C-alpha cells in the first residue's frame, strides 16, 4: 500500500526518526563548536554531558507521546497521560538551558515548577476518568465501602464521610497545589526582582525559606489526597496498575524538590563553598547547576520508566479511526481543566 496522507500511520513514525537524526546532525556540531570556542572547564563539561542525556531522553518521551496520538482511542484517559508524559522533556530541556545560563535559571525553572502541579492534577483526572468509565456512579460505590480513617500523620483528625464528600475533598486537595504552585512561583519571581528571594539560603529574612515551606506543605497534602484516594478505591484501580504510575509521578516531583533542599543544606553547612565555584560566578550558581545537571541525568531514567508505566499498548485497537492531527489538537485543549476549576470553586463557595 503506498504511503499517502490517508495512510499516515505508515509514514509518521519513520518521519519522526528522520527528524530526530537531523536534529542530532545539527545539535552535535553546535556542541562541539561551543566546546572549541571556550576553554573547557567543569561547567562546560557538565553542560555537554547533560546534553547527551537530554538527546537520549527526548526521543524516548516523544515516541511515547506520538504512539498515544497515533492510537488515540480513549481520549478521556490518553489526554491526561500525554500531559503527564510531557513532564520529562519539559524538565530535561528546562534544566539543560538553566545549566548553560545560570543567570536566567529562576525564570526558565518557572515553567518546570508550574508544570509539576499540572502533572499531579492530570494524574488525579486520569484515575477519576478511568473509575467513571467503570462505575458511572462513583459516589454510591464509595458510600457502600467501610469508613476510611485518615492515614498518618493526619490520623487524629475526623474521617471524611464516604461518598461525594470524600471524592470532592480528595480532588480539591490535589487541585489546591495546581493553584498554590503557580502563585508561589510568581511571588518568587517578584522577590527575585526586588532582591529579597535568597534562593538556597535558609534564612528567615529571605522569601525562599517561606516559599519552600508553603510549597512543601501544599505538595505533601496533594500527594496525601492521592494516596488516600487510592487506598479507598484500590480494588477498582488495580486493573490499570496505578502504583507504578503513581511512583513515576511522585519520584519526579518529590526527588527534584528534595534534591534542591538537600543541595541548599550542603551550601549552608559548607560542603559546597565559595572555594569551589569552578566557572560559576558564586556558590548559589554552583548549587543551581548541580541540581540542573542531576535532573538531566534523572530524566533519562524517568523517560524509560514513563515509557513502560504509561504505555500506549492497552489503547491499540484493530479498528482505529481519527486523524493524528486531530489528536494533537485535542492534546492542547484545556477546556476540561477550566471547567473543573470553575466547578470546584463553585462547590467551595457553596
Automatic annotation (TrEMBL):
<feature type="transmembrane region" description="Helical">
    <location>
        <begin position="210"/>
        <end position="230"/>
    </location>
</feature>
<dbReference type="GO" id="GO:0016020">
    <property type="term" value="C:membrane"/>
</dbReference>
<feature type="transmembrane region" description="Helical">
    <location>
        <begin position="251"/>
        <end position="272"/>
    </location>
</feature>
<dbReference type="Pfam" id="PF03619">
    <property type="entry name" value="Solute_trans_a"/>
</dbReference>
<keyword id="KW-0812">Transmembrane</keyword>
<dbReference type="InterPro" id="IPR005178">
    <property type="entry name" value="Ostalpha/TMEM184C"/>
</dbReference>
<feature type="transmembrane region" description="Helical">
    <location>
        <begin position="47"/>
        <end position="69"/>
    </location>
</feature>
<keyword id="KW-0472">Membrane</keyword>
<keyword id="KW-1133">Transmembrane helix</keyword>
<feature type="transmembrane region" description="Helical">
    <location>
        <begin position="179"/>
        <end position="198"/>
    </location>
</feature>
<protein>
    <recommendedName>
        <fullName>Transmembrane protein 184C</fullName>
    </recommendedName>
</protein>
<feature type="transmembrane region" description="Helical">
    <location>
        <begin position="292"/>
        <end position="310"/>
    </location>
</feature>
<feature type="transmembrane region" description="Helical">
    <location>
        <begin position="17"/>
        <end position="35"/>
    </location>
</feature>
<feature type="transmembrane region" description="Helical">
    <location>
        <begin position="81"/>
        <end position="99"/>
    </location>
</feature>
Amino acid at each position: 500500500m503506498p504511503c499517502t496522507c490517508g495512510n499516515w500511520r505508515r509514514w509518521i513514525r519513520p518521519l519522526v526518526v528522520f527528524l530526530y537524526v537531523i536534529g542530532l546532525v545539527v545539535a552535535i556540531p553546535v556542541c562541539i563548536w561551543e566546546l572549541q570556542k571556550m576553554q573547557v572547564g567543569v561547567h562546560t563539561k557538565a553542560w555537554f554531558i547533560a546534553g547527551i542525556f537530554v538527546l537520549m531522553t527526548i526521543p524516548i518521551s516523544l515516541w511515547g507521546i506520538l504512539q498515544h496520538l497515533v492510537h488515540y482511542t480513549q481520549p478521556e484517559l490518553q489526554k491526561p497521560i500525554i500531559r503527564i508524559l510531557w513532564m520529562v522533556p519539559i524538565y530535561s530541556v528546562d534544566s539543560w538551558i538553566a545549566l548553560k545560563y545560570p543567570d536566567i535559571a529562576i525564570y526558565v525553572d518557572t515553567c518546570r515548577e508550574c508544570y509539576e502541579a499540572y502533572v499531579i492534577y492530570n494524574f488525579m483526572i486520569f484515575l477519576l476518568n478511568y473509575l467513571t468509565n467503570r462505575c458511572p456512579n462513583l459516589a454510591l460505590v464509595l458510600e457502600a465501602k467501610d469508613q476510611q480513617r485518615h492515614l498518618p500523620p493526619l490520623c487524629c483528625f475526623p474521617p471524611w464521610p464516604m461518598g461525594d464528600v470524600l471524592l470532592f475533598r480528595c480532588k480539591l486537595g490535589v487541585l489546591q497545589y495546581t493553584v498554590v504552585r503557580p502563585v508561589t512561583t510568581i511571588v518568587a519571581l517578584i522577590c527575585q526582582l526586588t532582591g529579597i528571594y535568597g534562593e538556597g539560603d535558609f534564612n528567615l529574612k529571605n522569601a525562599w525559606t517561606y516559599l519552600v515551606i508553603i510549597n512543601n506543605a501544599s505538595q505533601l497534602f496533594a500527594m496525601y489526597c492521592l494516596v488516600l484516594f487510592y487506598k479507598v478505591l484500590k480494588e477498582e484501580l488495580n486493573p490499570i496498575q496505578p502504583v507504578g504510575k503513581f511512583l513515576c509521578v511522585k519520584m519526579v516531583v518529590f526527588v527534584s524538590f528534595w534534591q534542591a533542599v538537600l543541595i541548599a543544606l550542603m551550601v549552608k553547612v559548607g560542603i559546597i563553598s565559595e572555594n569551589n565555584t569552578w566557572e560559576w560566578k558564586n556558590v548559589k550558581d554552583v548549587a543551581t547547576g548541580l541540581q540542573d545537571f542531576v535532573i538531566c541525568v534523572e530524566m533519562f531514567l524517568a523517560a524509560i520508566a514513563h515509557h513502560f508505566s504509561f504505555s500506549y499498548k492497552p489503547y491499540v485497537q484493530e479498528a482505529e479511526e481519527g486523524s493524528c492531527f486531530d489528536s494533537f489538537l485535542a492534546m492542547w485543549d484545556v477546556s476540561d481543566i477550566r471547567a473543573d476549576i470553575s466547578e470546584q470553586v463553585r462547590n467551595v463557595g457553596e
